[in-house]
Amino acid sequence: MRAMAQLVMVHILLVFVPAVASAQAGAALTGIVTDSSGAVLPGVTVEARSPALIEQVRSAVTDETGRYRIVDLRPGTYSVTFTLPGFTTVSREGIELSGAFIANVNAELRVGGLQETVSVTGETPIVDTQNTKTQETLQNDVIGSIPTGRQYYSLTTLVPALNVQGNDVGGIQGPIFSVFQAHGGRRNEGQVHVEGLSMGYQGMGVSFYVPDVGNAQEVNFTLSGGMGEATTGGPVM
User: Fold this and answer.
1) Averaged pLDDT, 158-187
2) Which helix (H) or strand (E) holds 220?
3) Which of 88, 108, 197, 217 is 20 to 30 Å apart from 19, CA to CA?
4) Cβ within 8 Å of residue 107, ≥6 positions away
5) Class of domain 27-120
6) Which of 200, 219, 40 is nearest to 137 (CA)?
């Protein structure tokens, strides 16, 4: 009986641990905070605000190297505020995050009044220089305007390098599940994740769950890049 119980426990871990790990996926904010001389500033409170967050604001504190990191952020528009007693407060507005994008947002604080705030707008667009993933993102306005089947698998036909088994033109086949692959890989390597949680089973990524794409704010396709949160090496939708 003890051996059987151990086998059951191993099976549970193999099934659920990858799903829990995959739930950590999301966009992130990172950067370094310095003073006007270029010296790093530890202890700076960094707050990311967005209507996309249930809690509205998520915060972090810079470490001894002046670096901060705020992870697992939902798609949306963010403002980032940097605060340290004795220094001016700096605010960055209009930062767009989607998929697993890692935005590098640095700040320079200068000595000033406690109530003084400097808002920074119109800077050079932020580029993700830390992520090696190859991604494509479809926003909900695009999804709603294209006459495809109202299911995730229909959207794979819009993304270069993806190939889905069978076609559902205009949704005439109704809600069905399918399999897909990228770059000529195995046909069952594609996985469907909803809010970072895998909807497939461990044998392959195919999902029997067929949600309406109209409920999605965006649909992100990760095509390559060594996705450690996935249980296979194929694409993740």
Assistant:
1) 66
2) strand 218-224
3) 217
4) 31, 33, 34, 44, 80, 82, 90, 92
5) mainly beta
6) 219
- Annotate 161-199 with DSSP letters as a single string: TEEESS--GGGTT-S----EEETT--TT--B-EETTEE-
* Spatial separation of the C-alpha atoms in residues 112 and 28, rounded to whole Å: 29
| Structure token digits, residue 30 | 């990172």
Which ranges in the chain are annotated with CATH 2.60.40.1120? 27-120
Which amino acid, one-letter code, is at 193?
Answer: H
As annotated, the residues of the chain forming the CATH 2.170.130.10 domain(s) are 134-224
Mean pLDDT (whole number) for 130-152: 70
- Nearest Cα to Cα of residue 137 among 93, 181, 94, 101: 101
pLDDT > 70? residue 168:
no
**Cβ neighbours around 92 below 10 Å, total:** 23
CATH class (in words) of the domain with range 134-224: mainly beta
Distance from C-alpha of 59 to C-alpha of 45, rounded to nearest angstrom? 7
Q: What's the pLDDT score for residue 98?
A: 81
Distance of CA 180 to the CA centre of its chain: 21
Q: Which two tokens stand for residue 43?
A: 């202890």
How far, in Å, CA of 84 to CA of 148, rounded? 50
Angle at 11 between CA 221 and CA 198, to 5 degrees: 15
pLDDT in tens, 4-15: 444 444 444 444
- The residue assigned the tokens 């009044």 is 113
* pLDDT tens for each residue of 216-225: 777 877 776 5
Identity of residue 13: L
**CA dist 153 to 39, 178, 222, Å?**
50, 7, 14
Which residue do the tokens 């999605």 mark?
216
